[in-house]
């Protein structure tokens, strides 16, 4: 199933999870980051599809905002893992292994097992068919698109039969071919390995661009992101989220 970020969906997710997950859904904390929607999208998929006691793997989770929120609200509900090199990639956190002078290494996180490796490396540390749900939030766009097939191959290896894989990917900038390439590869790379979780037509990039309900990053957060990434100032560019939910065949 391929979808994209929509204003009405975001509002419904905020209303649904604000009380139980205030760290992720409190309106006063939301400033228009695309991750505001993406985190809630992932949370909704996890709570909808993952059984109690299920094994959950986040790809490139960094400080693991969503899993920390889960553990805080529903302690012990899932077995949580984070696969992330923690080497500062994409301005993410660093571990003690990669910290240099002036950097503060990320501390261990209670209730979350961290494996400092990359998806697509077929780490022997993680056993085949050992996870019920694998997800990522704003991570795949930091991986060269030519490497996506091997990353999804690795996820297929790690996922149990009948398990789910869920991703939220930045379509940035929405007006250029980069966004279209990511949306297409998000579908093609997974269609070869999994089945869509829902039988809905996949949207085209034209659908995302023209829909007045498409949710994009706010101008405030776009300007902040440019400075955070040390990018030169420029005109506001629309950035939406391309989302996918697939299931591994149980056969």
Structural notes for this entry:
- With 251 residues, the chain is of the alpha/beta class.
- It has one domain (2-247): 3-Layer(aba) Sandwich (Rossmann fold).
- Helices cover 33% and strands 19% of the residues.
- The chain is built from eight helices and eight strands; from the N terminus they run βαααβαβββαβαβααβ.
- It has helices spanning 7-17, 22-25, 34-49, 65-73, 148-158, 177-191, 205-210, 219-228, and strands at residues 2-4, 55-59, 79-83, 112-115, 131-137, 159-171, 195-196, 240-247.
- Strand 5 (131-137), helix 5 and strand 6 (159-171) form a beta-alpha-beta unit.
- The protein is globular.
- The model has no long low-confidence stretch (mean pLDDT 91).
H/E series = EHHHEHEEEHEHEHHE
- Indicate the overall shape: globular
Rg calc: 17 Å
Major beta-sheet overview: 8 strands, mixed
Number of domains: 1
Helix content: 25-40%
* Continuous helix count: 8
CATH class: Alpha Beta
Structural class: alpha/beta
CATH architecture call: 3-Layer(aba) Sandwich
Please, what is the CATH homologous superfamily?
Answer: Vaccinia Virus protein VP39
- Can you give the mean pLDDT? 91
- What CATH calls the topology is Rossmann fold
What oligomeric state do these chains adopt? single chain
Strand content: 15-25%
The total beta strand count reads 8
Distance between the termini: 19 Å
| Low-pLDDT ranges | none
């Amino acid at each position: 199933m391929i979808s994209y970020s929509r204003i009405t969906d975001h509002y419904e997710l905020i209303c649904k999870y604000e009380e139980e997950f205030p760290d992720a859904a409190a309106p006063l904390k939301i400033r228009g980051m695309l991750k505001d929607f993406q985190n809630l999208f992932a949370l909704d998929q996890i709570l909808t599809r993952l059984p109690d006691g299920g094994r959950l793997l986040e790809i490139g989770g960094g400080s693991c905002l969503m899993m920390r929120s889960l553990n805080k609200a529903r302690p012990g509900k899932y077995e949580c893992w984070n696969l992330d090199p923690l080497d500062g990639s994409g301005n993410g956190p660093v571990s003690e292994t990669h910290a240099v002078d002036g950097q503060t290494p990320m501390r261990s996180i209670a209730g979350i097992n961290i494996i400092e490796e990359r998806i697509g490396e077929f780490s022997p540390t993680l056993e085949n068919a050992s996870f019920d749900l694998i997800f990522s939030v704003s991570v795949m766009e930091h991986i060269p698109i030519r490497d996506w097939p091997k990353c999804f191959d690795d996820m297929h290896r790690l996922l149990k039969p009948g398990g789910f894989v869920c991703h939220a990917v930045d379509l940035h900038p929405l007006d250029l071919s980069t966004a279209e390439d990511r949306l297409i590869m998000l579908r093609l790379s997974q269609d070869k390995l999994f089945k869509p979780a829902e039988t809905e037509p996949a949207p085209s990039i034209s659908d995302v661009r023209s829909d007045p309900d498409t949710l994009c990053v706010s101008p405030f957060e776009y300007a902040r992101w440019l400075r955070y990434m040390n990018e030169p100032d420029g005109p506001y560019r629309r950035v939406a989220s391309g989302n996918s939910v697939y299931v591994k065949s149980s056969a």
